[in-house]
Design a protein that fits this description.
mainly alpha; 3 helices
Length: 65
């Protein structure tokens, strides 16, 4: 699992991600995130790496609603 920044253009990706959520309600936004996660997981494809990513994400602090 890569933990260092590995983006070619992180700012552009962030803008695209924010723009993709524009005009969506919370449910639609969560559905978009779920679909995006599955598409990106398919790109990774390695279940060991995916398990490491899930574990690392669970260790990250969660923001309160």
């Amino acid at each position: 699992m890569k933990t260092n920044a590995h983006f070619q253009d992180a700012d552009t990706f962030y803008e695209q991600l924010i723009d993709a959520h524009a005009g969506l309600d919370r449910t639609q936004s969560e559905q978009l995130n779920a679909r995006l996660i599955l598409l990106l997981a398919n790109q990774i494809g390695d279940t060991r790496v995916l398990a490491e990513c899930i574990a690392a994400a669970r260790l990250s602090p969660v923001a309160a609603d």
